[in-house]
Amino acid sequence: MPRTLEGQITMEKTPSYFITKEAPRRVISMSRHTRLIVVVRDPVTRAVSDYTQTLTKSPGLPSFQNLAFRNATTGLIDTSWSAVRIGIYAKHLENWLRYFPLSRFLFVSGERLVTDPAGEMGRVQDFLRLKRVVTDKHFYFNQTKGFPCLKKPEGSSRPRCLGKSKGRPHPQIPSEVLLRLRDFYRPFNLKFYQMTGHNFGWD
Ligand SMILES: Nc1ncnc2c1ncn2[C@@H]1O[C@H](COP(=O)(O)OS(=O)(=O)O)[C@@H](OP(=O)(O)O)[C@H]1O
């Protein structure tokens, strides 16, 4: 990481650190003062989103249910499939809490990031002890994209949405498959709510 000068914050974004066993030990040995921001969304939707992303790279991929179940008859979930495993947030957080106290974390709701981007960004700025510069004024809801976009990104006078790979339509997954997955995640979600002191409302 580059040296951080007075008045600067060095930021780094690697989603996979949250699920990487060695990451917390390495991060704390670099700086004990690191603040950690974790964006989480309903793990069921997250799994489908993950699958959708892989599907664009490998169109011949087996169906979602083929990958999600170890045994389709008993409904046994395949926790070795990364799209499923990543959503067991409580388990990943447990590993991080061996190194960092909860006060070092901010958990951002992926759902609220869509419905109230300025509100979530307000929490992020407070957590980083920054002046609230990004506010409601910076966002508008783009009907075509179906997501909030930036009115005027820095260095540009034109509005900007995130790229095509963000906010893609998801394939239709049979409802019984999603229900089974929802049952699977329920205890892990509850544990995660307890650990973070925040109910994300995924049930
Ligand atoms: N404003 C805005 N515009 C577009 N997309 C938005 C926005 N806010 C949140 N999202 C959701 O972000 C999801 C993609 O984020 P990822 O976590 O996959 O991004 S990354 O690959 O880790 O960079 C993406 O998931 P999918 O809907 O599955 O594509 C979106 O639902």
Task: Please describe what this structure looks like.
The structure is a single chain. The chain is α+β, with helices and mostly antiparallel strands and about 200 residues long. The protein has a single domain, classed as 3-Layer(aba) Sandwich (Rossmann fold), CATH 3.40.50.300. Helix content is about 40%, strand content about 10%. The protein has a two-stranded parallel ribbon with strand order 1-4. A hairpin with a 4-residue loop joins β5 and β6. The protein is globular and about 60 Å long. The N and C termini lie far apart (about 40 Å). The model has no long low-confidence stretch (mean pLDDT about 95). The site of 3'-phosphate-adenosine-5'-phosphate sulfate (PPS) has 11 residues, from α2, α6 and β6.
Order of helices and strands: HEHHEEHHEHHEEH
Rounded to the nearest angstrom, the distance between the terminal CA atoms is 39 Å
The helical percent reads 25-40%
CATH class: Alpha Beta
Mean pLDDT: 96
Number of domains: 1
Low-confidence parts: none
Ligands, deduplicated: 3'-phosphate-adenosine-5'-phosphate sulfate
CATH architectural arrangement? 3-Layer(aba) Sandwich
Structural class estimated from helices and strands: alpha+beta
Instruction: Write the CATH homologous superfamily.
Output: P-loop containing nucleotide triphosphate hydrolases
Report on the biggest sheet: 2 strands, parallel
Strand content: 5-15%
For this structure, the CATH topology is Rossmann fold
Question: If strands are numbered along the chain, what order do they take across the biggest sheet?
Answer: 1-4
Q: Based on CA inertia axes, which overall geometry fits? A: globular
The count of DSSP E runs of length 2 or more, i.e. the number of strands, is 6
Disulfide bonds: 149-161
InterPro entries: NST/OST, P-loop_NTPase, Sulfotransferase_dom
Organism: Acanthochromis polyacanthus
Domain Sulfotransferase: 30-186
